[in-house]
Amino acid sequence: MRCLPAQNLLSFLKSSILLVEMFLRRKHAQKDDPEQRDSKVSELRAAIGPLSGRSSKYCTDACLRRYLEARNWNVDKAKKMLEETLKWRSTYKPEEILWHEVAHEGETGKASRANFHDLQGRTVLIMRPGMQNSTSAEGNIRHLVYLLENATMNLAEGQEQMSWLIDFTGFSLNTSVPIKTARDSIYILQGHYPERLAVAFLYNPPKIFEAFYKATRYFLDSKTVEKVKFVYPKNKDSVELMKIYFDVENLPSEFGGTRMLKYDHEEFSRLMAQDDVKTAKFWGVDEKHHHIANGNGHSVAEVAPQPALIAQQAS
């Protein structure tokens, strides 16, 4: 086999690199082109075929865009991912989980929806792993799924993502969930709620958490890893990063803010019971309207306020 002269080989390599760069630029430009994206959405919608009922309500254009984004705008991969979610939703029925079914998991305030938003107007979930009160894998997962559905239903019009604040006060290996539960939770978040997470701030995690995170980050895709931000009170840069996303006057003191916030389980249960009515009406779960209980076990179907106009959005 004849060898190319060094000069010709160098020229060939340069040309090859230029061709690759041109291809990547064109591919990136196509992905960012609104018309190309709209075309991909239409292509994905045609690929999944006719839908009915809740699947049709779930698969808004915004929903399809999230699945395409999660799969780098590859229609075939996005189709497979979406079909898996539709199958999961048809059997797990996350939209039918009621607060009173998972309220015992939230008694300590280990996870809840905040009553404030980030600077982009996104719904905020607050996690307190140091307040873990259950060893039930299924209970922990159903509680998380309920909160993900609830956070989604409370997104502002045109908003598709939420932010997480995770407070590590009191965290220890004794209070951490098992690796398998963490893995299963990550699978559901990434597989069935793609591109719902905007950012997750891990505030002041102890060194002992590093081992736990190293064990679980293998289950995270690269996009999710980029959204995880470690914040330490003594690290000025990480504290400043928080200020990009949050108004310090809204932030609870345990996250470096100025606001005093104490979790009130009875009040939160009342709000969630009202949200259950809105959720049931949105998804057409009429048969459960008169079985939704408030924190005191009484029906709220007759007294809950009418739901505000909910933008078409996937959960």
From TrEMBL:
Domain of life: Eukaryota
Official protein name in the record: CRAL-TRIO domain-containing protein
Pfam family, any one: CRAL_TRIO
Gene3D superfamilies: CRAL-TRIO lipid binding domain (3.40.525.10)
SMART domains, per database record: CRAL_TRIO_N, SEC14
InterPro entries for this protein: CRAL-TRIO_dom, CRAL-TRIO_dom_sf, CRAL/TRIO_N_dom, CRAL/TRIO_N_dom_sf, PI_Transfer_CRAL-TRIO
Domain CRAL-TRIO, chain residue ranges per copy: 118-263
Organism per entry: Hibiscus sabdariffa
